[in-house]
Amino acid sequence: MQHLVSPVGIVRSCFKEKFAIPRQPHLAPAARGVLELLPPFDQGEAVQGLEQVSHVWLLFLFHQALEDKPRLKVRPPRLGGNQSVGVFSTRATHRPNGIGQSVVRLERVEPGRLHLSGIDLLDGTPVLDIKPYVPYADCVNDAHNAMADAAPRLIPVEWQADALPLARQHALRLNEPLVELIEQCLAQDPRPAYQQPEPERRYGARFWDLDVHWHYPEPGRIRVLDVQKAANIA
Ligand code: SAM
């Protein structure tokens, strides 16, 4: 049996590539985006009542991780990328039907547009459905998950002297909490766990229209080196 689904909207996100996106929502509250609804859901009626809701569930497609052959086991980055576990025990992106789910903060509702924060979604992510978060049903007080029992440990993020004023200028231009976004995302240590970061090695990721580079002066410590307008963006 097959079902055809089609997106109700597309996320315009601060994250322009997969690298350095937090592994779950809420981990970077400064990660913002807009869910642009597609016809016929772009009319005010479809979102009427949502202004009473602080958070929504998004069901979406991992559109940049779709695969033809289903995997039974995956190697989640959280376990260091070298331990293989059953696909249904993880929230890995490579999964049957490529469906992801995230609870995100609903900052503001407009006809055709939902303003979101705390997202873990790539720019262009197709959203299949939106549901209000229902605290009495969705918040499970005695829940446990021994494989993912706490948020990732944060590492300190420092700035090269001239990088921070640049980031502040871009934050003003974009009207976005850019410094916080960079610090919150890098503090999660996006580097694959199996990689030993040599101090000479530069890492980079794109946030909004900016390329951000950093390095590890020593393992467990990040220094932001520069924040530059991405070359191929007008
Ligand atoms: N909260 C969701 C869930 O549990 O289904 C996503 C968890 S998944 C581990 C989070 C990662 O998915 C992010 O770090 C990012 O690299 C990746 N990601 C986000 N949006 C994506 C997309 N549209 N296509 C492929 N990968 C995506």
From TrEMBL:
PROSITE patterns: TSAA_1, TSAA_2
Entry-linked InterPro entries: TrmO-like_N, TrmO_C, UPF0066_cons_site, YaeB-like, YaeB-like_sf, YaeB_N_sf
GO MF terms held by the record: tRNA (L-threonylcarbamoyladenosine(37)-C2) methyltransferase activity
Family to which the UniProt record says this protein belongs: Belongs to the tRNA methyltransferase O family.
All copies of domain TsaA-like, residue ranges: 5-142
Keywords per UniProt: Methyltransferase, S-adenosyl-L-methionine, Transferase
Superkingdom per UniProt: Bacteria
Organism: Pseudomonas berkeleyensis
NCBIfam families: tRNA_TsaA
Lineage: Bacteria, Pseudomonadati, Pseudomonadota, Gammaproteobacteria, Pseudomonadales
GO terms for biological process, alphabetical: methylation
One Pfam family per UniProt: TrmO_C
Annotated protein name in UniProt: tRNA (N6-threonylcarbamoyladenosine(37)-N6)-methyltransferase TrmO
